[in-house]
Design a protein that fits this description.
mainly alpha
Length: 311
């Protein structure tokens, strides 16, 4: 004999308040969308300003002269606008920086992910990333006051301001970026690939060079390109250590002027707003923007093209 369950009215049943949850969800969508729109509109505003001012610059300076002049003297009476003078200095300091950061960062990443014990890795990786928190102005004075005198002890023709010291310290400053991102890419390679290589009789060195690094290649290249973009856009280190002498060439022992150093020089000087000299900083800024944009697009394509996917 079973007891009859008295029918319950619909008013006595508990029902979750879905209406309030929907309102909160809609509010979150609006807030996050607003912040995303702010970042997009800010980027569009920066690009629009660069394009407008650059267009005004090229109304007064022929584009051909911008590409073919061999001097950069917009602040002098005999004005020339050879942008490759500034590009050569930017490329020179960036190449020196990458020659320093690539081996240091990549070997540090391999050491942390493949050889260090988990406890050691948890300690060393944050310590390495602390280096990225040092202000760039400190790196600049370190290059000018410590590294340059040290290099001059065995490079007599090295001048006080030079691209070599700036490039070396710039490479040190971007090493944590290369090391951290590369280490993440190497560490994410499945352990089953390593085990399969060891099962075939390969040593640890052979496994790293033939299995792990190729599998993490897209992440390593992406970290390298991000580091190059960071080096190209660096301002204080090259301004303080490389000097402000626009020189066309690839001699690392003499003062040079990078694109960012020129923008700093004009922005902090007495150049009248709206003058031709003032408009040059927007033309230089647009050139810098296009260089970093090309690098980012290449990084995006490379990662999509060579990304390894594992189950």
């Amino acid at each position: 004999m079973t007891a009859e369950v008295p029918p319950q009215s619909s008013a006595s049943l508990w029902r979750p308040n879905r209406q309030r949850s929907k309102q909160i969800q809609n509010l979150v969508v609006v807030i996050t969308g607003a912040f995303a729109a702010i970042s997009i509109l800010t980027t569009l505003g920066i690009v629009a300003t660069l394009m407008f001012e650059t267009f005004e610059f090229f109304r007064e300076v022929p584009f051909w002269n911008f590409l073919t002049d061999r001097r950069w003297t917009p602040l002098f009476s005999s004005k020339q606008f050879g942008i490759f003078v500034l590009i050569s200095a930017t490329v020179l300091t960036s190449v020196i920086a990458i020659l320093v950061a690539l081996p240091l960062g990549l070997l540090a990443a391999i050491c942390l992910s493949e050889y260090a014990q988990p406890k050691t890795r948890r300690i060393l990786k944050p310590v390495l990333e602390i280096l990225a928190g040092i202000p760039s102005v400190v790196f600049g004075y370190f290059a000018l006051l410590t590294v340059t005198p040290f290099l001059q002890s065995f490079i007599p023709n090295l001048q006080g301001f030079n691209a070599l010291s700036a490039g070396l310290i710039l490479g040190i400053s971007i090493t944590p970026l290369v090391a951290s991102l590369s280490e993440d890419a190497i560490y994410s390679v499945p352990q089953s690939l390593r085990d399969g290589s060891y099962a075939l009789g390969a040593t640890r060195r052979e496994t790293i060079t033939a299995v792990v690094l190729p599998a993490a290649l897209s992440g390593i290249v992406a970290s390298l390109i991000l580091a190059v973009s960071r080096a190209i856009g660096e301002t204080m280190i090259v301004t303080l250590a490389a000097g402000q002498n626009p020189t066309l060439g690839l001699n690392p022992f003499v003062p040079v002027m990078t694109m960012t150093a020129y923008i700093v020089q004009v922005s902090l000087g007495d150049t009248p707003v709206g003058s031709l000299a003032f408009k040059t900083i927007f033309a230089v800024g647009m050139t810098l923007f296009l260089m970093t944009l090309v690098l980012n697009l290449f990084s995006f394509w490379f990662v999509r093209r060579f990304r390894e996917k594992y189950e």
